[in-house]
Amino acid sequence: MIVDVVTAGEARGLPGELLTELAGFYASDRAFQQLGGDFPDPARIRPEDVAVSLADDLAHPDAEVLLARSAGRLVAVAVTLAHDPDRPSTSAPSPSSASASTPDPWIALLMVHGRERRSGYGRELAGRVEDRFRAAGHAGVRLSVAEANTGAVAFWTALGYEETGRRPDRRRGHPCRLLRKPL
Q1: pTM for this structure?
Q2: Which terminus of the chain has fewer CB atoms gathered within 10 Å of its CB, N or C?
Q3: What mean pLDDT comes out for the span 27-48?
Q4: Secondary-structure percent of the chain, ordered helix, strand, coil, rounded to 5
C-alpha cells in the first residue's frame, strides 16, 4: 500500500480527477455515509461536494488527509488532526516536539472503499497512522465512533482501542463513543 499525504496548504490545488475519484470512493460505502458520514445520499456525491468536505477537514492547520492506494486504486482514506477537534489546544505542538504531556492526536476519519472492506486495508492504514504518531513521540491516539456504527466500534476495539467516554457528535449531534489507544 502506498500512502500519499495531503496537507492544508495543498487542499486548494487538488486536481479534478482526484476529486472525481474521491466522490466515487465516498459513494462506494452507502452504509457508512448513512450512519453519519458527510454525505447522507451517496448517490448524489459530486466532486464539488468532496472539495468542500476536504476544505472543511483541512481547515485545521494541523490536519492531514492520507490517501491509501493499492495497485493504483484508492482503497482507504484517513483524516488526522493534532488533537481532539472539540477540545482545541491553545498551541498545537509540532510533531517533532510532541510528548506525553501534549494532547493525543485524533483520527477524524478512516474509511475503506466499499468493495475493499474486510481486505485488511483499514487495519493497515490505521497501523500506519499510529506509527506516524508514535514516531512523532505521542503517547496515544483518540477518535470517536457513532454508537450506531457497530461495525466500526468492533473494528477499533479489535485494534486495541478502549472506550473513554461518550458525547454527541460535534456536527450532527448523534451519540458517539470516544476511544483511545496508548502508543
Answers
A1: 0.86
A2: N
A3: 83
A4: 35, 30, 35
